[in-house]
Amino acid sequence: MIQRAIIRQSRALGSCVRSTPTRSLARPQFRPANISLARPAAARWYATEPEAEAKKSEGDKVAAEAEDPVKKELEAKNKEIIELKDRYLRSVAEFRNLQERTKRDMQSAKDFAIQKFAKDLVESIDNLDRALLTVPEEKLKAPEKTGDLQDLVALYDGLKMTEGILMSTLKKHGLERFDPSVEGEKFNPNEHEATFMTPMADKEDNTVFLTQQKGFKLNGRVLRAAKVGVVKNS
């Protein structure tokens, strides 16, 4: 009996406890306020132009000091090689120019070594030519050559042969005689010297029609200009 009573009391007590409302303890929720903290603007420092140049020069100096010494030496050697090559090429060019100039001078000295002698010789050739011109052509063409005429013709032939041999020998050494009136050449002031001018209806102006003194050339250079008469119609 006692046991039953205890069980009943315990059940009644349990039902009372269950019927008692439980309080819910609500935790307070804290929300942080949106507070924007303004950051102070960062201060900017601007370097002046001298300071910038100083920093740049210091940076270049540091970079130059940091270069490899072997690289510096190699660059110096390459520069020296370029300078030596340029000097070599200039020396070769100057030497070749000297060779060409010396060659021309030697050839000129060789070609005109007898120039003074040739100038003195042309006067004798002129006298020989004048001697041949003194013999009249009709006597040379006479059908009968007797006595003095035969001797004159023989003398003329001897002088003519001597002149031919002399001119052939001089030609071997570059000395040549020219007569512009033979082919009626145009007057050339570089080779001819006009002593007089005259009108001629059957010839063109500036044509050489008479040679008073024949000219001479030494290796293509005029040694003495020919003295000529020139046609002048206008």
Automatic annotation (TrEMBL):
The keyword Zinc-finger does not apply. Keywords: Chaperone, Mitochondrion. PROSITE patterns: GRPE. GO terms for cellular component: PAM complex, Tim23 associated import motor. The keyword Chaperone applies. One of its GO terms (molecular function) is protein-folding chaperone binding. One of its GO terms (biological process) is protein import into mitochondrial matrix. CDD domains: GrpE (cd00446). Pfam families: GrpE. InterPro entries: GrpE, GrpE_CC, GrpE_head. It is found in: Mitochondrion matrix. Belongs to the GrpE family. Essential component of the PAM complex, a complex required for the translocation of transit peptide-containing proteins from the inner membrane into the mitochondrial matrix in an ATP-dependent manner. PANTHER family: GRPE PROTEIN, GRPE PROTEIN HOMOLOG, MITOCHONDRIAL. This is GrpE protein homolog.
